[in-house]
Design brief:
homodimer; 429 residues; alpha/beta; Rossmann fold; 3 domains; 5-stranded parallel β-sheet; 14 strands
């Protein structure tokens, strides 16, 4: 990590830079995949599976037999852990269900909103060496709680056409049965446009590499909703002298091990905390299986000494981190000052990995500064709120002339007439 | 209107088609405007004002003197109407403020969400012959209630460099003082990237023509949030025999007068209601100042006779209209069956123009079938919900092993270690 001291607020923005992801070649490649899947459907998906994943797929859909087999391949210990996490995530997301009552804005005019589940949603789970089953909990549980009718899941298979049992097991216990062996941009295309095997959905969720991310952006332009824009994962830790350098180092590494482009920042008003964290980092990093990745990420990372915790919070608000950890015994006193962040971890025992897996909060969060305007995934992401209004004769009589005057001023006379006719019928004109 | 009878559910989708808006030339033109504004800032804005709006602008910002003058140019009657609408819109949107309480998902683990205003938002109000001041209420009021710190507004001036007084007056009473004389795609570019005069914002709201819509899509790809994708305005009316043909005709025309591409649909299980509505349409349309526009829109519009109101609701759910009017004395009994719609108007006295102006609900709604996955603008649109968690020693002890097992299964050992170190410190290992 680079250690920076005595930097001035005017220069802060220099240290907030993030990688630039736009790339014309990427757009071209992904666009051609979208076009191909739209035209050739299952055939295109099987062709890409062979080309990119080196697997010859007979069927795209995971069979019932595969689902049943998966359960026997997951250890009891992992099943139990998934169950504990599931309970907490369910509790937190069920708690987000709110019945808004109607309000009478004027006598005779009742207005309300109702949350209605998005009927068809698609979840994408990336492949790779490790099965990201935790993301199925984070996306599948709120989808189920919201009441989405069709929930499908796409994830690439391995070279033997198998999907990792932990993925299948986790999907099963949530009740997701429509699982397809498709990865990458082609999976996003399949869920957006539909194929012979895969039904199209209205909204697509889930993380992925730059191809997946670009595909989500491009199908969004065609009217398919997506969870949020994405970039490399990030953590910003604010530590005062009551922080624990060993914990801080471990939390920084939790982020750094995600990938060489992970963004890791440490801010403190205490020079000794920074120095001791650097020592702890050195001690911990070599023991990690992913130490090469973590070291690369750390090369681009910064530890910055600022004048006060207030300055640290101000810096963080300008950066808008995906994850913000406040490593301090007095963390709660800073909470009200936080304006831009995806998810905030308060105090020395609130580690990011708790939120990543099992505390109950969602781990699908806005990166790349998007926390300035986007929320993380929640129950809200799986519903739309429909507005309703019921206006009686008394109600329209009360606001009729208001509508007539406004409509006339906007030169929309049919709008005015719709009211005038009703007022006449009531006998108010 | 085309009248269709005896159509089968399998053929419904034929009658749900909407205009296709994608256009490569449009993308090229708008992209070049974005690039020009990003590079040349105010200079580009003034050049486009001259080129497109034929106005020579000295200053882009509306002056205090102009704001003060505007108030004297708006009639007392219109001021009073705006005030009534403002009150109702404030009531409905204030009612959407919800303080979520924290939940303890496991003993020692407290999780909660907090709504925090998006700091910088930009509102776009189109120009044209009529001043769309009602949209300022619909966007500005929730922005203020949410607590957005910087609210700016862009709208094109006329050829004399004047903005319509009703626009300036409405913005003033809400407390919006940063108003800029910029229209079209260049206004969206200015708010996205910033210029010497115009500060950049995090999220852009507001309606506009195809250039504005395309510009919003393109800046969204660059990380600026937008309210929602857009298409031509729509109404779908479901009427049973208790509907009022004269009211229905007026409501259809309210939509049709917006533009020749407006989408207007009438569904009924009662042939006589359709026939009588067609007669009323003929009687009303010629009296409208915008009758030529309305007639064009009606040419593409359909009245469809279906077997039952249940079929009408099912058709509507598949179409997902922006506005849905249920013209029936028994309208409330159908409400629970509505799955996809932007805003629903219940009963014969709930006309769309009430919601467009003054009942309290928002008129910025998802068109083009986006109601399947998007909500209309609400207080939610101006905040992001930040997640917080506070975990005690007791809390991490309770879920520590769960996290360790899950992290290890996902091969993320630094994630595991962040927990292990804490459990060791507590003395749990």
């Amino acid at each position: 990590m680079k250690i920076l001291k005595n930097i001035q607020p005017n220069d802060w923005s220099k240290y907030m830079s993030r990688p630039i992801l736009e790339n014309e070649k990427l757009t071209y490649i992904v666009n051609s995949i979208l076009i191909s899947v739209k035209a050739n459907k299952d055939l295109a998906l099987k062709k890409y599976a062979l080309e990119f994943d080196h697997v010859n797929l007979d069927a795209l859909k995971v069979s019932l037999a595969e689902l049943e087999e998966a359960s026997s391949l997951v250890s009891g210990e992992l099943k139990e852990a998934i169950n504990v996490a599931k309970d907490n995530i369910e509790k937190f997301h069920s708690h987000q269900q709110i019945d808004e009552v109607a309000i009478e804005t004027t006598k005779g005019i009742k207005c309300w909103r109702k949350s209605v589940a998005i009927e068809k949603v698609g979840l994408y789970i990336p492949g790779g060496s490790a099965p990201l089953f935790s993301t199925i909990l984070m996306l599948g549980l709120p989808a189920k709680i919201a009441g989405c009718k069709e929930i499908i899941l796409c994830t690439p298979s391995d070279k033997n056409a198998k999907v990792h049992p932990a993925i299948l097991y986790t999907a099963s216990i949530i009740g997701i049965k429509e699982i397809y062996k498709v990865g990458g941009a082609q999976a996003i295309a399949a869920m957006a446009f539909g194929t012979e095997s895969i039904p199209p959905v209205y909204k697509i969720f889930g993380p992925g590499n730059q191809y997946v991310t670009k595909a989500k952006q491009l199908v969004q332009l065609q009217g398919i909703a997506i969870d949020m824009p994405a970039g490399p994962s990030e953590v910003l830790i604010i530590a005062d002298k009551t922080g624990n350098p060993s914990f801080i180092a471990a939390d920084l590494l939790s982020q750094a091990e995600h990938g060489p482009d992970s963004q890791v920042l440490l801010l403190s008003n205490d020079e000794s905390i920074i120095d001791r964290t650097m020592i702890a980092l050195g001690e911990q990093v070599d023991a990690l299986p992913r130490s090469i990745i973590a070291k690369k990420a750390l090369q681009n990372s910064k530890a910055i000494l600022l004048d006060s915790i207030e300055d640290c919070i101000e810096f963080s608000n300008q950066y808008a981190p995906e994850h913000l950890i406040i490593a301090s015994n007095q963390a709660m006193q800073y909470v009200d000052k936080i304006v831009n962040a995806g998810s905030v971890f308060i105090g020395n025992y609130s580690c990011e990995s708790a939120g990543d897996y099992a505390s109950g909060t969602n781990h699908t969060l806005p990166t790349n500064g998007f926390a300035k305007s986007y929320s993380g995934v929640s129950l809200d992401s799986f519903v739309k709120k429909i507005t309703f209004q019921e206006i009686t004769k008394e109600g329209i009589s009360a606001i009729g002339s208001t509508i007539e005057i406004m409509a006339e001023s906007e030169e929309l006379f049919a709008h005015k007439n719709a009211v005038t006719l009703r007022l006449k019928k009531i006998g108010n004109v």
